[in-house]
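Async update (no meeting this week)

Hi team, since we skipped the sync, here's where things stand on the single-chain job. The sequence we agreed to prioritize is pasted below, unchanged from the tracker. I ran it this morning and attached the output directly underneath so nobody has to dig for it. Comments welcome in thread, and please keep replies under the output.
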Amino acid sequence: MGFEGADPGTVRPGGRTARVRSAVLQAAGDALAEHGFAHLDLADIARRAEVGKTTVYRRWGTVTGLVADLLVDMAEQSLPRTETGSLLGDLKANARLVQRTLADPRQGALFKAVIAAATCEAKAAEALHRFYDIRVEEWAPCVQQAVDRGELPEGTDAHEVIRAVSAPLYYRLLTSGDGLDEAAADRAAGAAAAAARAGVFLRGAEGRA
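Output:
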């Protein structure tokens, strides 16, 4: 999961409308990373993006609407999954993408701000959930392929395995202040792989337990 994408300043083709959207979302991401959700202001974002205030208010309407569109853009830019041919290799690739995203000063701060916004704004929460649904869906086939290869038991919940990979990394980001390095990513991937092999993520396993 995670942003896992191209340079957030990248402008995709599509004419003036696309350039305006890119500039505004870049400015919104910068402002979020610098000041957090509570201090976002559409007029300030318009100034940063060198776009008319009327354009920003007409297109996005509210700060929450702008943050939701920022998450849509992040999902669109996110990199596709890596397939290495082994469960552990795939989960390490996933974990290292998340780790690089969260360890990046700008992107890590941006995610903290968006998560904070999601705790108090329903639209921000909905957008954040959609972002992670997209990213989990992208990586889940790696787990199903491991089931097909015989690495994991039939009935393994692929989505839960992918969530388990990134969960420890977000926990460190939000609660401990400890640095996030590749060793932390590899531990998270290894733990998720071991648990999956042991049947922890079998659908209905909690009921049988």
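Quick observations from my side:
The two ends are 29 Å apart (CA to CA).
Residues 5-13 have pLDDT under 50 and may be disordered.
Reply here if anything looks off.
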